[in-house]
Amino acid sequence: MRAPSLWERIEPLLPLVEKPSRYLGCERNAVTGNRNAVTGGNCNLPNAAADGVYRVALLYPDVYENGQSDHAMAILYHIINALEGCVAERAFLPWVDMIALMRERELPLFTLESTAPVASCNLVVVALPHVLAVTNVLEALDLAGLPLRAAERGGAHPLVVGIGPVALNPEPLTAFFDAFIIGEAEAAIVEFIAAHRTALGEFVTEPVTQPAMEPVLRALAGVEGVYVPALYEPRVDRTRVPLIAEAPARVTRRLVDDLDALSPVTAPVVPFAEVVDDCLKVELSRGCGRRRRTCQTGAVYRELRTRRADAVVAAAAHGLAATGYGELALITSAPGDHPQAEEILRRLNHLLQDTDVKLSMASRCHTVRDVALMQLATSERRGPLSFAPMAGSVRLRSALNIPLTDDELIEMVRSAYAVGWRCCELRFLVGLPGERDEDVQAIAELARRAFVAAREAVDESYRGGLRMDVRTEVFVPRPHTPLQWAGQASHATLKQRRHLLKSAELPKGVNLRLHDPASARARIEAALARAGREAAALIEQAWQRGALFETERGRFDEAHWDEAAASCDLSIDELAERRFAPDEPLYWEHIDSGASREFLAEEFRRFEAALADEATSAAGSCSVGSCSTGSCEPAPYAVGGGERRE
């Protein structure tokens, strides 16, 4: 039997809320559920939620315009809907006005395609894009009518699985999820669904008929890359011990080994409303070869995987024809790392000539070659172009494994303004381990020098309109990085850093965008990023006190978290600032990110040694690896079990 449609109850609410297009569904290229039978709508695939279909809700715990821009969820939507007997539908967390109305009228969270209850699906895949989304997750589960705690759910409920970057340390959320897919979910989702369907019995349509959860969880634990928290015993020493043979001692993260073997999304859903990234997206590459010691992406997804030029151009042509988008955006962490980048850009420019379609590339520039490629990729100098030196001094950049001298950065900035950009952004971290006042003062001095170079690079008539943004963010230690043992800087330290930057004399046109005085959001991120299962109560208490949409302007209230922590006998400051000893077990060590503990510990030792190397001068020399010339490559990360690549 089909899942019941809620459309007749949803439609009367739309005139009462902001942006009703968030809740319409039936966009171009969306699959359909059973809503046509209720509304006579014109969705493109008939009867997708008919009897005998395994149904998946792809739940993004944020509003439509944010979630619809998530390319990873679009990939899963494409993969699952291509599976025989399966249908994936999207669900998003409504905005606060719609939430209030839904609770008042006892209307559960629904999928867009069929407007069926999320709880009527067989599987709910929840994106975990960032740590501060965790309270949104609880709101979504509660609004769906599901028990928050996995231990309180059973055969009458869908399986709830978490994916995304936050799952690299799943422990704070284990109370709320039945399972996690570690790494790139698209590499494991087909196996995961196959195992789940087999455990349930083929073509299960009514969750109420599902068997008890334990056999299902046992089956899922046998899928590589899947972590099932209920099958592990947490020990006092922070280790996790498998309770059954099917559960591996360490869960290895999954990767898409061959990007060309992953079909690009050439017919994505085209939203009715404007979303954050209102464009066709095509991936050029995945992975990061930069090896920065603060970067979780570089530690976990360090294998660079590229898509062939022919595949990129074909995906762009098919996608534009299927969507009618006016912008094509290429996704890559560093364009200069792709061996065919220039060829791809020239072919795409040829494809788009005599059209109104704009070409853009979402990335940060690491080299002068990146700037040249961005020039090919961007017909209009819509800024700002982004550079991420991360630290103001060469001393700190060297310790972070960032082989970039002041002169090299200034040359990149100069070249960007020379070819037409009128605004660039320099991004820095403050509160780094080993940071001194002079490192922070060096941020302002580097920005001043870069802006002087930018003015010199353009004709005098343009100089009055030049701008440069200098953005600082508070360092948050992340699991599976060499700095996972370090703590976050204290309130007093961060306040002092802010004061140093605000008191710096900078030219007109340089705009300082500083971390807030209390750095409250970063405190919560740091507290949760490296926490264990004790943080579940903290998250739930914060949500009950009103913590919701924490990244939206004007929504964050630090008091929610401090009160929640006090009720749980925890301290946000202690969680955020604690430093782990190198031989101390970590909450996430049962998750195998591809880099061994021994390697990461050695990298941390190298970081501390580089900080102590007073021979590294702020004048422009670099001590990354064995280089002392200022022209260098980053020290390589380990490949597979942690061995160094020579």
Description:
By secondary structure, this protein is of the alpha/beta class. The termini are far apart. Strand 3, helix 6 (134-143) and strand 4 form a beta-alpha-beta unit. The chain is built from 21 helices and 19 strands. The longest helix has 21 residues, at 437-457. The strands form 6 sheets. Strands 2-1-3-4-5-6 form a 6-stranded mixed beta sheet, covered by helices on one side. A 4-stranded parallel beta sheet has the order 15-16-17-18. Helix content is 32%, strand content 13%. Helix 10 packs parallel to helix 11 (341-352) and helix 18 (535-544) crosses helix 19. It folds into 3 domains: 7-252, Cobalamin-binding domain (Rossmann fold), CATH 3.40.50.280; 279-381, Transcription Regulator spoIIAA (2-Layer Sandwich), CATH 3.30.750; 385-514 and 581-646, no CATH class.
Structural class: alpha/beta
- Biggest sheet character: 6 strands, mixed
CATH architecture identity of the largest domain: 3-Layer(aba) Sandwich
Q: Low-confidence spans: pLDDT under 50, at least 5 residues?
A: 35-50, 617-646
Radius of gyration from CA coordinates: 25 Å
CATH superfamily label of the largest domain = Cobalamin-binding domain
List the helices and strands and how they pair.
Layout lengths: L6 H4 L25 H4 L14 E7 L3 H4 L3 H11 L4 E7 L3 H9 L18 E5 L6 H10 L15 E5 L15 E3 L7 H12 L12 H9 L4 E2 L4 E3 L5 E3 L8 E2 L27 E4 L1 E2 L9 H5 L4 E2 L2 H15 L3 E5 L9 H12 L5 E5 L5 H10 L7 E6 L3 H6 L6 H13 L4 E8 L6 H21 L9 E8 L16 H12 L7 E4 L6 H10 L5 H10 L13 H10 L4 H6 L13 E2 L4 H16 L34
Parallel strand pairs: 1-2, 1-3, 3-4, 4-5, 9-19, 10-13, 13-14, 15-16, 16-17, 17-18
Antiparallel strand pairs: 5-6, 7-8, 11-12
